[in-house]
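During the second half of the funding period, the structural biology subgroup turned its attention to how the target accommodates small molecules. The most pressing case was F0G, which had performed well in the primary screen but for which no bound structure existed. We therefore specified the complex as follows and requested a full 3D prediction, including the ligand pose.
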Amino acid sequence: MVAILTPNLTHNYWPGLIEAYRSFLPVSSSTPVVTLLEGNTPLIPVSAIASQVGRGVKVYVKFDSLNPTGSFKDRGMTLAISKAKEEGAEAVICASTGNTSASAAAYASRAGMQAFVIIPEGYVALGKLAQALLYGAQVIAIKGNFDTALQIVRDISANYPVTLVNSLNPYRLEGQKTGAFEVVDSLRSAPDWLCIPVGNAGNISAYWMGFCQYREAGKCRRLPQMMGFQAAGAAPLVQGKPVAAPETIATAIRIGNPASWDKAIAAANASKGEFNSVTDEDILAAYRLLASQEGIFCEPASAISVAGLLQLKERVPSGATVVCVVTGNGLKDPDCAINHSKNGVKSSVAPDLEAMAKVMGF
Ligand code: F0G
């Protein structure tokens, strides 16, 4: 008999996070799975950042920007939209600083539903807006911030036949908890610290739920300290009270009254974690550092997890393992990259050897 070698096309096939973690998720055989094969994002060792922390601390970036719409929101959206479809919804709505709107729009289009997205006018990064429009959402910009937009979508979804897909929808957090599962699956343990950006406070709550469930299932023995970071101008959880007019360059987390306030406080308390604020200047420094020394291009809100770690570096236990969650892709906010890069474009250079060599410093 002649052995026929066929390429194994299923090698490393990733079925999307609902299939991968089905037994941990509220789905049944009748749930129509709406997926873009999200999840399974890399956990990247970042040695330049680790050496700034020193004392043998190991640092990894959970690079969730590599999800199909470029942010961690896809983890929650695959589940929220699948459940909305199961329940017969024809339309979904969200308030958003940009990423939720892009993700909701993509998954709704795949499910054959209409998406309505309500955004704070003038404060959504260009790439996110472009995504929502092209995926076919109805984009409505209001004269008001995210907190106002969230109140409006709560009212609309309570009165009209549209399903809310903000993280108040419990399926969003159920999906997002898989980020914690993947961290544990990669490290074969939980990290000592999980550093994470905090805006509406859904993701920190979801990660904590994920770590706790995985420990109960015997997948890890310990739990991380949850270290949440907010921008200095939008730090209600640090200040212990809502911020009426939040301001930060990190528009994704420009939020003054997080919906998952209580859950996030509970996660920080139970894990002996904390909330700290980071200035825009330090956020931008980490944003540039990640790109220029690690090759990781993220959006400013995501860089806060690394900026926060560097701010607290003296307090990280020696030899500890730290995971910084990087939530969104740098390509979403090209204006920020261009305005805050240290290198300008050397323009109008004559296309000849001598001029080029001179400009290049040879
Ligand atoms: N990082 C990015 C890139 C985000 O877009 C968000 C939230 C967060 C972090 C914070 O996560 O809200 O769960 O604490 N973006 C929401 C949105 C608000 O509308 O896209 P959180």
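Two results from this model are relevant to the next phase. DSSP finds 15 helices and ten strands in the chain. The mean pLDDT is 96.
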